[in-house]
Amino acid sequence: MSAKTDKIDPSQPLANARHEEFAKAWAKGSSAAESLRAAGYADVPANAKRMTNNDQIKARKAWLQRQTATASTMEGAEKREILANIARNPKERASDRIAAIRADNDLAGDGSHAKSDDALTKFMQGVAARD
Q1: pTM for this one?
Q2: How far are the Cα atoms of 64, 78, 100, 124 from residue 92, in angstroms, in the given order?
Q3: All structural domains of the chain with their residue ranges
Q4: Phi, psi (5° rounding) for residue 35?
Q5: Residue 49: other Cβ atoms inside 10 A
Q6: What is the CA radius of gyration of the chain?
Q7: b/e string for 60-79 if b means 16 or more Cβ within 10 A?
Q8: What is the pLDDT of residues 3-20, one digit of tens each?
Q9: DSSP label at 109?
């Protein structure tokens, strides 16, 4: 980073509101042209080049994208925690506990290939049959 960008705090909105709108749109995956329009700029190649080469905008875009990725990860972890609580709760119906285990396997990418969980699922199905 240059001395000019060392002072940038990308967690703070950009001082120029139109630059901030451009960075937000660009971080969400819009093209430079779409981001220009979203920020109220003319869709001109010179504007796109100027904005996409602006160190403050690039830093803000990267920060916004990291925040989005982190939020998505947390949502997945939270979902798995909820499913784990259901699966471990003996007060839940056995069929609900089995469904929670299966859903957790799917979220973890284990799906029907989870060998160690297959034995647990079979056990729980036996318990469910007795319910």
Answers
A1: 0.55
A2: 40, 19, 10, 12
A3: 10-71, 89-130
A4: -65, -35
A5: 11
A6: 24
A7: bbebbeeeeeeeeeeeeeee
A8: 454 578 999 999 999 999
A9: T
